[in-house]
Amino acid sequence: MELTVDTRPAPKIAIEALVTYAFENEKPDTGVLAQLDQAAGGALSKLAAAGELTGKMLETTLLYYPQGLAAQRLLIIGAGKKEKLGTAELRRLAAAAVRSLKSRQVRQVAFLVREGERSESAAQAVVEGMILANFDYDKYKTDKKPGGEITFASLAGWDESSRAEADRGLARGRIVAESQNFARDLGNEPSNLLTPRMLADRAAAMAREAGLSVDVLDEKRIAELKMGALLSVAQGSAEPPRMIVITYTPENLNPNAPVLGLVGKAITFDTGGISIKPSNDMEKMKYDMCGGAAVIGAMRAIAALKPSCKITAVVPSSENMPGGRAQKPGDIQIAMSGKSIEVINTDAEGRLVLADAITYAKKLGCTHLVDAATLTGAVVVALANVNVGVFGSDQTFTDQLLASSKAAGEKMWPLPIDDDYREMIKSGIADIQNVGSGKGGGAITGAMFIKEFTGDTPWIHLDIAGLAWQDDVKPWNAKGATGVAVRTMVDLAMKFGK
Length: 498
Ligand code: BES
Ligand code: ZN
Ligand code: ZN
Hints:
Strand 3 (60-64) and strand 4 form a beta hairpin.
C-alpha cells in the first residue's frame, strides 16, 4: 500500500474515497464536517436531519459522487462519544473504513483526521489501522481475485506547517503495522508449512534483510547447552527444535546500559503430547507460536526504528507431539539452569521451552525480560478475549509495560504472582512440577513456573492465549492471527533505558 500525506483542503481531495468521522449527535456545523457540508450543498445536514448520520460507533454513511467535492465517494464513520475518542479508537475507525471500502472494490482512500485531533500519534494510529485492515490471509486460495486490496492511502487534515508531524507518524505507523502483519502471516501459517526449521529460516531471512544479527541454534547446539526442558518437548516429534536468537545493537552502545530481552513461545503445533488434547478445535493449535511470531515481528520494527538500547530476542521453537519417543507424564527433566522439573502434564509445554529460553537470554546478557506466550486456557477464563494477562516481578518495569500497552492500544491487565502461589508448583520428587496443584489459578501457576528461571532479573510475562487469535471477522480486522503484543513491545523498546 502506497502511503502519503495530503495537505489539500478536504473538498479538493480528488480520490476514490474520502473518509472522515462524526461524533454521536453531532451536527455538521463545525470544522471539517461544516466545510464538507457547505461544499456539498448541505448534503450532510440533510442526512443528519433525516437521522441517517447519528455518529453511533462504526455506523457507515456513504455518499456517491457528492456534488461540490473532488472525491468520488464520501464515507462518514460513526465515532461514538467525542470525549471517548483516543488513538485506539482512531486506529479502529480508520481500519473499519478501509475494510468496508476494500469490500466495495475501492482502491484509493484518503482518511481525514478531524480538527483538534491531529498529532503524530494520531497519524501513526490511523496508518496502523489502515495497514492492519488491508491484511487478508488468502495466499493459499487459488481462485483469489487479483488486486483485491487498497493500493493507495493518504492521511489528510494536516497543513503544510504541521506536515512533518504527520510524516513522522506515517513512517512509524507503517513500520509497526507492517511488522505486525509479518507476525500475523506467521501465525496463520499451517504447521506443515511452518515447522521450527521453517520458522527459523523465515526469521533469519527477515533479520538479514533488516540488518539484524541472527543465530539459529540447531538440535546439536541445543543439546550441548543442556537445554533439557526444550529438548523434552521436542523429543516426541520427528521435527527437530530450534532456538532462534536475533540481536539488535544500536550505534555507540554503552556497555553498561541495560539490555532488553524479548522471549516468545513458538510451538508450531501443540497436540498436547501424550496428555493429548481433544480433537475439537485442535487445528487452531498451529497458532501456539504467536508469542514467538510477535517477538520476531517486533524485532523487524525495532531494526527500522533504531531505539537507543540493545535488544536480544530469544524464540524457542518446537512441535509438541505424542511420538514414540515423547516424554510421558511423571518424567523428570533437567532444565539448562540445572533445576529439575517433574512433567505432570505434557500439554503444559510452553513453560518448559520458555524456561530454557529465559536461562539463555540471561546468559546472553539481558538485564530485563519480557516474554509473550499463548500459555494457558486459564487466562481466557480470567480475562476472556479482551485483555492480555500481565505478570510482572518488578513494579517499575511492569508500569512501563502497561503504559506502552496503553499507548499502543493493546489491552492488557495485571494479575498477581505473589509467593503464596509458589506452593502450588512444588513437586514431591523434583524441584518443581509443570502444572499447579490445587484448584484454579492456572494462568498464575504457569507464570510462577516461568518466574523460577528469571532469578533477580526484572521480568514480565504476557499470556496472550486469549488475544493471539480472532475467531470471527470484525468490521476492522480479518479473522485469524492478530499479531497482538507487537505494538506494545515496540513501544516499550523505543522508551527502554531512557
Ligand atoms: N497452548 C496451550 C494454551 C492455549 C490454550 C493457547 C488455548 C491458546 C488457546 C498450552 O500449551 C496448554 O495446553 N496449556 C494447558 C496447561 C495445563 C495443562 C496446565 C491449558 O491451558 O490447558
Ligand atoms: Zn500445551
Ligand atoms: Zn501450548
